[in-house]
Structures are given as C-alpha cells and as structure tokens.
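Subject: sequence -> structure tokens, single chain

Hey, anyone have a minute? Need the predicted structure for the following. Not urgent.
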Amino acid sequence: MHTAVMPHGRGEIVMEGSKQAFYMMFTQTDCVEILTHCPDGNVAAKAGARASGMRMDWIADGAYPNNGHLVDCEIYSLKITDWILQSPFVEQIGVWFHKRLREIYESLGINLEEHSIDRNHNKVVGAAVAMIAAGQVYKGISIYNRWAVMSSHDPVFCISTNPIVISLGSVSLKMKNGEIEGELCQ
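Reply:
Had a minute. Here:
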C-alpha cells in the first residue's frame, strides 16, 4: 500500500480504492501479505494504514530516509487471513457459491448435506473461489483447506488447472469464464 496520498485526495475515495487494490492483490496475484512504511511524524500515513485494516507489526529503527537523515518507521501489514475477514467483497461471493453448489448437487440428484455456516465460512469460501477463478488455484485451495481443517470441514483438491477442476469428494467442479459446472467423481 502506498500511503503517500496528498491531502486533497484523502478520505472515502482512497479507502474505497485501497479495498479494491487489496482485493486485486490478494485474489489475482500470489500476494499473501502487504507491507508499508509509516515514518515517524507522518500521522496521515499511520491513520491511512490503520483505517484500511492494516496493523503495526514492528518498528524499524533508523530505516526510513527523510529530509537527508534516517528516521524510525513503523511497519504496518495486512495479512491475507486478516483481509479475508474484513473484505467487503468476498462474503457475497461465498453466498453465491453456496447457492450454485446447491443447484449443482440438485441437478446431479445428490442431497447436499447442509452444514453449519460459521460467521467466517462464506468469507473464506468466497475468497478461495475468487482466487481460483482468477487463476490462483493452489493459493485458493490452500487458503480454503487451512480454514476447513481447523473448522471441521472437508478439504478440497485440485484435479486440473486447465480447465480448473476441483474435487469436493463425490462431486467435481469445473470453473470456466465465471461459470461453475459439476459432475459426479468417478
């Protein structure tokens, strides 16, 4: 995140832009953490980092050049797991995915066993689906499986990346051009 925003450009538009940039970075690249320098004395940089959901990780002593000398700076970060929980975009993708999954199971004549959806379930599923759809297949699967194993859900597996085919156990999902199709696993 670039926290050097001119005073006239600060506010809601910058916050909205950072949300969109974080979404792009975390779903469409191999990025798992975003870092920024917030040098001593730059109150606006620290406020912007905090407002966008970043948190201070450490202080780098004398690490930031400022007016010809080195000053201390706080290093702020946003880890992918923290982003997933605060992103305004991913939960609705998770809701859409679960609706589509029910349709697929019904079309295959399978009774989809309803499982409890904890407060983070749709967020993690939505983030994983967004990553997989953007070509970050193994990253999306890894993020989902990390959560699934610790939350008593079954992991998923990649069968193919071209086309993208994901195994859910009894059903495999093929993802292409924003569409998801399902078929019984052999």
